[in-house]
Amino acid sequence: MSCCAPGAEMTLDLAGATSVLPSSQEIRLASRSIGDNLCQTDLSVPTIHCAACIQTIETALGRLDRVESARVNLSTKRVSIQWRGDEAPPFFATLGRLGYPAHLFDPETGNKDKTLSELIRAVAVAGFAAGNIMLLSVSVWSGAEGATRDLFHWVSALIAIPALAFAGGIYFRSAWNALRHGRMNMDVPIAVGVSLAYAMSLYETINHGDHAYFDASVSLLFFLLIGRTLDHVMRERARTAVNGLSRLAARGAVVLRGDGVRDYLPVGEIEPGMELHIAAGERIPVDGTILSGISDLDCSLVSGESTPRTVGAGAKVQAGTLNLTGPMTMQATAAAKDSFLAEMVRLMEAAEGGRSQYRRIADRVSALYAPVVHLAALLTFLGWMIASGDWHLAMTIAIAVLIITCPCALGLAVPIVQVVAARRLFEAGVMVKDGSAMERLAAIDTVLFDKTGTLTLGQPRLINGQSIDPAMLAIAADMAAHSRHPFSKAIAGFAGSSSQPGLQSVSEHPGFGMEAVTEGNTWRLGRRGWAGWKARTGGEGKYGGYGGTVLSKNGMIVATFAFEDAVRADAKATVGQLQDAGMSVQMLSGDTANACRDVASTLGIEDFVPALLPSGKVEWIEALSREGHKVLMVGDGLNDTPALGAAHVSMAPATAADVGRNAADFVFLRESLLAVPLALDISRKAGRLIRQNIAIAIVYNAFAVPIAISGHVTPLIAAIAMSASSLLVIGNAMRLQGFAKGSSPEHASRDRRGRAGMLVQQP
Amino acid sequence: MTTLVYLIPVALFLGALGLTGFLWALRSGQYEDLDGAAERILIDGDEPPK
C-alpha cells in the first residue's frame, strides 16, 4: 500500500475492490521479459470504452518514468506496457487516480492466437481458391468445350492444390486423429469426400472428361472453415473475457528470513516452516498458523461463511482466505501443492465424471451418418458395376454420391447454431466455454445453487439504516470509509460520502473496530464489548444477533448496526423462473442451517442442505446423478469447485474463485442471477434449432441421394444443392438471434443498464 | 483462346495480390484491435501517441 496516494485508494475501495494493489514484486512476477532489459506487463482494464479513455491512459502511463511505451487494446480492454529497470513503475496508482481500476493479467503462454491465425489464413486461401475456381467452372457450365475446357480444368486443379494442402490439412489431421483412436467425427466423411472428389476430377482432367468437381471440393472447405472459424472466435472471446477477470489467488508472498531479509517468492516456492508477512488486503497464499498479529479474515470464498472470522496468534488459516484489517505474520504449514486450494483441484479432477462421458450431438450424428453414406456409395458402385460393367462410370457415380452427401450442411448445422447462441449470451454477459456446454445445459432437470456469493452477494448490507440518527450514521460512515472490513464498507456504502470535517486520527484496531477523535470526544465503531467499554446504555437496539456492531461516543453506545447478507439482484425472480421451467431448485451451503433457512425462505427455495463440506456437495450431486437427474451447479467458492466439476454442467459468477471460474462451463459477468434462466432458455432453443438443422440436412440428402445414385448429378447440380442447403441451415440458425431478443426485451434492456455497474463491481 | 493465355494469369495474379495483402495485414497486427482502430481516428494531436 506504500506506493499509492490515499485519494486513489478511497475511490478504489468504494468501487468494491477488496484487495490491495499488487506490489511491485508481484507485477514483476506477472511480467514477461522481452529482451534488452525491457519488461512487458499486461493489465486488464475493464472500464476502457472510448477514444478519450485510450488517450488519457496512454498519455498518463507514457509520462511515467522508465515506461517505454503503453498501448491500449480496446477490443480486449487491455493495456500492454513496456518498461525497463528492476522496479515496476506505479501503473496501478496512476490508473486508479484516473478512475480506471485495473488488474494484472498473466503473461500469455503464446498458444492463444496460433489456432485462430491458422484458421483465418486457411479461410483466406480457401476463399481465394473457391472464388477463382468457381469463375472457371461457370465458364465450363456455360459451354466451354474441348481444349478450353481442359485448360480451365487444369488451372482449377492447380489452384485447388494449395487450398487442399493448407485449408484441407485442418480436416485431414482431425479425421486422421479420430480414426486412429477408433472414433468417428464429422471430419471423416468431409476428408474422404474432398480427397476423392479431387482425385476423380484429376483423373477426368487427364482423360479430357466433362465433369470435374474442383469447385465442389474447395467451396465445401471454404464454407466449413467459415463455420469453424466463427466457432473458434466466439470461444476465444469468452476465454479472453474470463481470463481478463482479476485473479483471486495469491501470486506470491513476502517471506521473512531469519536475518531480517524480506523476499517476495512465488506461491510455488513457499515451503512449510517459512515465515510469511501478510499485509491487510492480501490473500493467504498457503495453509498455515498465525504467529503474531490480529485481524479479520474473509473466508467466504473458501468456506461459504459470510461473516468475517477474527483470528489471532495460534489460529490456523487456509489458503485463499482474505486478510481484511491488520497485518499478520504466519508460518506456512503446507506447501502450495498440499494446500486447501490444491486439495480442491484434486477433488474436482476425481469428481469429473458425467462430463467426460458426454458425446457431442455432432459426433453422435456423424457416427451414424458416415457409415450409412459410405455404404450407400459402395452399394452404388457395386450396383452400377453389375448393371453396366463399366468401372469408370460406376466409380464416377459412386464418387458423385459421396460428394453430394458430403455433410456440408450437417457440418454447419450444429456449430452455426452454437455460434449464434453464444453470441446472444455474450451480449447478455454470459460467457460459454464450449458448444457442448450448451447441449448439456439443455438437458438438465435440477438446479443446485450455492448460497454465499451466488444467491447472495457474500457482502453484508446494513438493514436498520433508516432507524439510526442521521448525524450518527454520517460519523460512522466517515470512520468506516477508512476500513476494508465488509461491515465498514456496508455502512460507508449506505451513507454515501458526506465528508464531515473534524475527524482526527482515525485508526483501525484489527479484530475490534475503528477509533477516531473529534473535538475531544473519542468515537469507536466496532464490536459491542470493545466500543461500549462503559455502561451498556444508550441506543441499544434489538438487533443483537448479527455480530453486534455499534458506534460509541466516549464509551457510551449511541447507535447499533444490523447487517444481513445481501441477496443477489433478481435471485427470487430467477428461482421462480427456473421452477416455472420445471426445474427442481435446491440450495447447498457450507453455512449454518439458520442462515440457510432465512435465505431459502426469502427466495422460495424449499430444499436446502446446510453445513456441507466440499466433498459433501460432490456426494449430493453424485447421488442425484445416480437417480438419473441431470444437475446444473451454480457456485462461486473454492469449496464449490469440486461440485462444479462433478455436475453435468456448471455456472459461476465473475466474482468466483479462479479455479471455480476455470472449472465452470458458463461464467456470468453481471450481477443479476437472471443469467441462469436466460442461458437455460437460449440453450434449449439452440438445442431445438440444432435438431431442426439436422432434420433439414437429412431431408436434403433424402432428395439429393436418389438423384446421385441414378447418375444424374453434374458439377452444376452439386454446387447448387450444396450451397442451397448450407444457406438454409445458416438462415435457420439466425432465427435464434431474432426470437431470443423478441422474447426477453425486458431482460435485455436491464442487462444493458446493469453493464456499467457490473464492470465497476468486479473486484 | 490466345486472350485466355494472358487473361487467366492476370486474373490469378490480381487475386493473389489481394490474398497476399490480406495475409500481410493479418501478420502485421492490423486486425488485433478493430474497435480501437475505429476510435483512434478521433484522437487528434500533433504527435502520435507513444
TrEMBL record, chain B:
Superkingdom of source: Bacteria
Please give one Pfam family short name.
Answer: FixS
| InterPro entries, alphabetized | Cyt_oxidase_maturation_cbb3
Q: Which residue ranges does UniProt annotate as crossing the membrane?
A: 6-26
Keywords, ordered alphabetically = Membrane, Transmembrane, Transmembrane helix
Can you say what this protein is called? Cbb3-type cytochrome oxidase assembly protein CcoS
The organism of origin for this protein = Mesorhizobium huakuii
Q: What is the lineage of its organism?
A: Bacteria, Pseudomonadati, Pseudomonadota, Alphaproteobacteria, Hyphomicrobiales
